[in-house]
Write the structure tokens for this entry.
Amino acid sequence: MSPTAVLPRTRIAGLSARARNIVDSGLVSRTAAVPDWPARLDQLHHLTATPAADRSAAIARLDDRVLCDLLVLSYLHNGTPYALWADNLAGFAEDVLGAPTWAHLQTFVDFLAWRDR
């Protein structure tokens, strides 16, 4: 029996895995190997400087190819494709993990309310 591939939970999780594979396999080992790298690097710096709430919306509008290039650049420059979420853990949970943070918080609050009865 052959193992089955696990599907990523979100679009961004799948693209992040692809970006890691691109860099780890040696397909892209330097910034200049990324297509249209000067524009992409400017875009990455602009996104990093954007407030977290606006950044998530901007990332959601990006084409898969462009977002993958940005994640590759992030991995090359920061050691992780997830640097865009370094200051936004709730955004990371929602965008990458697919975990609706408010739903988890509500479950926790409901548990505490039930426990304290």
Q: What stands out?
A: Residues 64-78 form the longest helix (15 residues). The chain has a mean pLDDT of 86.
